[in-house]
C-alpha cells in the first residue's frame, strides 16, 4: 500500500484524491449544494438516525447474517463466508441507501423520487422506499433490461412506480442514467434523483457509501464473533460499486485484510463493447457529472459496454474506487460471463442459495482465489438474490446445466 487511507474524504468539493467532484450546470450545482446541506443536517440529526435504524431493523431485517458456506469451503479447501445481503427486504443491498435517500428527500419537501436501474434491484428498492414514505417514483430502465429483468419490472409497477424505458443506444444501464438525468434537469426543485450507486456528482458518492457502510460495520463485528479474527480476504462485485464500498469501508485500515473488487469481463476483455471492466482497462475521464476511471471510445466519449449482469454494465465506476485503485489498497480483477454463470449454479447446487448474477461475479473470483492456493478466509458480499435472473439463466444456459424447459 502506497499511503494510508484518508478518512476525511471526500473533501468539501467532493473529491477522493483527483476523482469525484461535480461537473454539472451552475443551476443544478445550487440544487446539489442544497442536497449536500440537507444530508449533512440529517447525518447529524439523532431523530433521523434513529428512524433509519428503526427501518433497517424492523423493515429491512437487518442485521443481515454471515453464513459459513460449509460445502464450498470443503470443496475448495478455503473457508468461504457470505454476507447475506440477499436476505434483505427487496432482495439486495440497494434498500440500504434507498431508504436513506427517501428520508432525505422527504425532509427536503420533495414530491418525487427518480432513478435509473439496470438489474432492477435499485428500482425495486427505491419504489419500495417511495411507497413507504409517500412519494411518487419514476424509474428509468433500458429496454433490453426491461425484457431481461421482467420480474423486477413487475415488482416496481405493483409498488406504484412508473417504469420508463430508455430506448436509445444499447438500451441498457448507461442509457437509463442518461434518461434519468435528462428528466431530473427538467425539475430539480420538486424531484430528487436518487442515484443508485456510489457514482454521480457530489454528494452522491459520499452519501450512498455512508448508507451502505452498514454492511461492513456489521460484518466486522459478526466475523470476529464467529471466528475470533477478521477475514483474510474481502470480495465484492463492482459495477458502480455501492455494495463493494459498503463492505470495504470498515476494513480499509486493516492491512492484513486483502480487498478484491470484481469487474465484469463479459464475453471478451480483448474486444471493445464486450466487457465493462472500467478499472481494469479504462482511464480517467468525466461522465454523468463526476470524474473517475471510464471506458472511452476514440472520441473520448463513453465506450459501449456489456455484461451478462445488467447491474454491472456501466462504463464508469465510483470515484472512491478509482482512488483506492491508484492508492493500491484494493485489487481489482475480473470474472467473465461463463465464470459468473458457473458460480451461479455452483452456489445454487452446493449451498441452496440462488445468487444474483452480479453477486455471482464475486463468488467466481473468490473461487479462483481458492483454486490459485488461497487458504485464508474469504468473505464475499452476496449483494443480491437471483430470483430476478432465473428465467434469463434458464433460457440462455439451462441446457448446459441439465435444465429442460417444462413448457
Radius of gyration: 20 Å
Shape: globular
Calculate the terminal CA-CA distance, rounded to whole Å: 55 Å
Bin the helical content.
Answer: 40-55%
Oligomer class:
single chain
In total, the number of domains comes to 2
Number of strands: 14
Low-confidence stretches: 1-5
| Class computed from helices, strands and strand pairing | alpha/beta
CATH level-two architecture of the largest domain: 3-Layer(aba) Sandwich
Kindly provide the name of the CATH class of the largest domain: Alpha Beta
Largest sheet: 6 strands, mixed
Mean pLDDT: 95
SSE order: EEHHEHEHEHEHHEHEHHEHEHEEHEHHEH
The order of strands across the largest sheet is 3-4-14-9-10-13
- Count of helical segments? 16
Task: Estimate what percentage of residues fall within beta strands.
Answer: 15-25%
**CATH topology title of the largest domain:** Rossmann fold
Protein name: Tryptophan synthase beta chain
Family: Belongs to the TrpB family.
Pfam families: PALP (PF00291)
Modified residues (N6-(pyridoxal phosphate)lysine): 94
Amino acid at each position: 500500500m502506497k499511503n494510508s487511507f484518508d478518512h476525511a474524504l471526500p473533501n468539501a468539493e467532493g473529491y477522493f484524491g483527483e476523482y469525484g467532484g461535480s461537473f454539472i450546470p451552475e443551476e443544478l450545482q445550487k440544487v446539489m449544494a442544497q442536497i449536500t446541506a440537507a444530508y449533512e443536517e440529517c447525518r447529524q440529526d439523532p431523530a433521523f438516525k434513529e428512524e433509519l435504524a428503526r427501518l433497517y431493523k424492523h423493515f429491512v431485517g437487518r442485521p443481515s447474517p454471515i453464513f459459513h458456506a460449509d460445502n464450498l469451503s470443503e470443496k475448495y479447501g478455503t473457508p468461504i463466508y457470505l454476507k447475506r445481503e440477499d436476505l434483505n427486504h427487496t432482495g439486495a443491498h440497494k434498500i440500504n441507501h434507498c431508504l436513506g435517500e427517501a428520508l432525505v428527500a422527504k425532509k427536503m419537501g420533495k414530491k418525487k423520487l427518480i432513478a435509473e436501474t439496470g438489474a432492477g434491484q435499485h428500482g425495486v428498492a427505491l419504489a419500495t422506499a417511495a411507497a413507504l414514505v409517500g412519494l411518487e417514483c419514476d424509474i428509468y430502465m433500458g429496454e433490453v433490461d426491461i425484457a431481461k429483468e421482467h420480474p423486477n419490472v413487475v415488482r416496481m409497477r405493483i409498488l406504484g412506480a412508473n417504469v420508463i424505458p430508455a430506448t436509445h443506444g444499447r438500451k441498457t444501464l448507461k442509457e437509463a442514467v442518461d434518461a434519468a438525468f435528462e428528466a431530473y434537469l427538467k425539475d430539480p426543485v420538486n424531484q430528487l434523483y436518487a442515484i443508485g450507486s456510489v457514482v454521480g456528482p457530489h454528494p452522491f458518492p459520499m452519501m450512498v457509501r455512508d448508507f451502505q457502510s452498514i454492511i461492513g460495520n456489521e460484518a466486522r463485528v459478526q466475523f470476529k464473533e464467529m471466528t475470533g479474527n477478521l477475514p483474510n480476504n474481502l470480495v465484492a462485485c463492482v459495477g458502480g460499486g455501492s455494495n463493494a464500498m459498503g463492505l470495504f469501508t470498515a476494513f480499509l485500515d486493516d492491512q492484513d485484510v486483502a480487498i478484491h473488487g470484481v469487474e465484469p469481463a463479459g464475453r471478451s476483455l480483448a474486444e471493445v463493447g464486450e466487457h465493462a471492466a472500467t478499472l481494469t482497462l479504462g482511464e480517467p475521464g468525466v461522465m454523468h457529472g463526476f470524474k473517475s476511471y471510464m471506458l472511452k471510445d476514440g472520441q473520448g466519449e463513453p465506450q459501449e459496454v456489456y455484461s451478462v449482469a445488467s447491474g454491472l454494465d456501466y462504463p464508469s465506476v465510483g470515484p472512491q474506487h478509482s482512488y483506492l485503485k491508484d492508492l493500491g489498497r484494493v485489487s481489482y480483477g475480473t470474472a467473465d460471463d461463463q465464470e459468473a454463470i458457473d458460480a451461479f449454479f455452483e452456489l445454487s447446487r452446493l449451498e441452496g442459495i440462488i445468487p444474483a448474477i452480479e453477486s455471482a461475479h464475486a463468488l467466481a473470483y473468490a473461487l479462483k482465489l481458492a483454486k490459485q492456493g488461497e487458504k485464508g478466509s474469504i468473505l464475499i458480499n452476496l449483494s443480491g438474490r437471483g430470483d430476478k435472473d432465473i428465467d434469463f439463466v434458464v433460457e440462455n444456459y439451462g441446457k448446459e446445466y441439465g435444465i429442460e424447459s417444462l413448457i
